Amino acid sequence: MHNKLTVLGIETSCDDTCASVMSGDSVLSNVISSQCDFHNIYGGIVPEMASRLHVQKIDLVIKKAVSEAKINFQELDCIAYTEEPGLSGSLFVGKVAAQTLSLLLQIPLIKINHLHGHIFSAAINNKFSYPLIGLVISGGHSNFYYCEDSLLFTQIGTTYDDAIGECYDKVARILGLGYPGGPIIDKLAKKGVCRYKVPMPDLYHDQTFNFSFSGIKSWVYNFVKKRKKTINVPDMCASFQHVVVELVIKKIKLVLKEYKVSQFVIGGGVSCNSELRRRLIEEIKNVDILIPEIPYTTDNAAMIARMGSEIFSEKKKEKLWEIKTTVL
Question: Which is more confidently placed, 18 or 40?
Answer without folding.
Answer: 18
